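The material for today's practical consists of a large collection of protein records. Getting from the letters to the tokens is the skill we practise here. To make this concrete, we reproduce a full record directly below:
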Amino acid sequence: MIFQQFRHEEGGCLSYIIGCTQRNVCAVIDPQLAIEQYTAFAGSHNMKITHIFETHAQADHLSGARALFEKIGASVYYHESAHASFPVKKVKDGDEFMVGNVRLKVLHTPGHTADSVSLLVSDTTRSNDPWLVLTGDTLFVGDTGRPDLDGSAEKLYDSIFGKLLALSDSVEIYPTHFAGSSCGKAISPKPSSTIGFERRFNPALQVKSKKEFVDFVMADLPVQPPRFQKVRQYNLGVIKDPPIEKTYNMNELQITVEQLKAKLDKGEKPVIVDVREPSEYKTANIGAKLIPLGEIPKRYTELDPKQEIVVHCHHGGRSQRAVEFLYEKGFANVKNLVGGIDAWSQRIDPKVPRY
């Protein structure tokens, strides 16, 4: 078996090639729009792409599944609940596919979306036991998929605790996202893990009941990017024109506290927005305009999209979500303050209280 993970910094995405070098065939899972990376890899290993799997209809980035289908003719596979407007093959829970000597078994794992699947992978030349599972947006390293876009927290619980955690602790997990994605709220930057490690240390899995899990995964969710549903429709072929040019690179939407201080010292006047809660603002602030994260979708019109805007919170997590939202709303010069007000207090102005 040959296994290749492709890391896409824009949007914190991961895609995969899994193949059989004995039979010279391979499958692509969750491809990005730049399909040349997959055809080049397959060609360099003398393999033919025979299957294209989508773990669900993606909403955060432009999929390359249709482009691959049109270029090489390999079939695209979606769960039977997805409704695509181009030729796809439908899969259901329990379906198995042989890609040479590699077996891919479909697990229907709804929750993030209704059509979410995970792919259980076995190298039959070594064992029929599963070696790894591609978890899509159902289970991440250190997190789970957010269920508020087109899914159900209750079904997410059933999928994770009823199917994925039923697997052996040694089974490796490979999700479709790492830190930087909007599809979770606290995803680790590490792009792989094991069932056993996540069972023990993933905060979302340390619950004692379904209700506790639902409450946990629904709390403090990031602001929904406004174009998610249109991206999903484009990836399914429902609309013709892509609603975004590309998945944005969060690394380009960051500013350090030192860089902000240098701007201020030069007399530049970026608009600084604080997305913490009022109680936090009273404890410590740097004089920014206060718009709590939950109010951003209603109050973003108070900001001028032509101005330079720097957004901060306590450590940088909430402000990153606000930056994603504002960027997709057309704020081209918006940046997240890395480390937030805590970093400002430590490295720039110790008079600002830490809390």
